Amino acid sequence: MKILFIVLFIVCSFNAQAQTMSQSIMVMDGWIRLTPPIAKNSAAYFTLHNMSDKAVTLVEVKTEIAETAMMHDVVIDKSMARMVHLPELTIDSGDQVIFAPGGKHLMLVNLTQKLSADQEVKLTFSLKSGEIITTTMRVMKEYQPSSAVHQHD
């Protein structure tokens, strides 16, 4: 029995380390803006933290609630704010990138369903390395830290 316990402990420890080591990006404080029922688009906001020892590049985000999810940034050009599409985003080792209203954001284009308050939505982040990170975000009218979902698969 003691040997079985030791074997299980070693296997579980190896699994936990492998899972942690394969997660180079942590998605934190994610939420999706609640929009009126007739809205075709929404936006998702979150913080990405690169926990690896090398730069990583985010190349795609997908969700079932929108036909397309596109990374955008807001830039000021000659006193005019405009959105610019980010085809990919590189995050240096140890750095964080904040997606927040008025700045970088994930545009959810052509919603496939009406959003409702407190709805939980799965998003899948794809890195250039082939790594996939899945997280869940809650739909909110405005960000409420105690209500945000923080989960990784």
Give an overview of the whole structure:
This protein has 153 residues and is mainly beta. The protein contains one helix and ten strands; from the N terminus they run H-E-E-E-E-E-E-E-E-E-E. It has one helix at residues 2-22; strands at 25-33, 42-50, 56-63, 66-77, 80-85, 89-91, 96-99, 105-111, 120-127, 132-140. Strands 1, 2, 3, 4, 5, 6, 7, 8, 9 and 10 form a ten-stranded mixed beta sheet that branches. It is globular. Mean pLDDT is 84; it is low at 1-22.
Topology:
Elements: H1 2-22, E1 25-33, E2 42-50, E3 56-63, E4 66-77, E5 80-85, E6 89-91, E7 96-99, E8 105-111, E9 120-127, E10 132-140
Parallel strand pairs: 1-10
Antiparallel strand pairs: 1-2, 2-7, 2-8, 3-6, 3-9, 4-5, 4-8, 9-10
Rg calculated over all Cα atoms: 18 Å
Helix-strand makeup class? mainly beta
Content of β-strand: over 45%
Query: SSE string, helix = H, strand = E?
Result: HEEEEEEEEEE
**Shape designation:** globular
Poorly predicted runs? 1-22
User: What integer is the average pLDDT?
Assistant: 84
Number of strands: 10
Number of helices: 1
Main beta sheet strand tally, sense and closure:
10 strands, mixed
Q: N-to-C terminal Cα separation, in Å? A: 32 Å
Fraction of residues in H or I helices: 10-25%
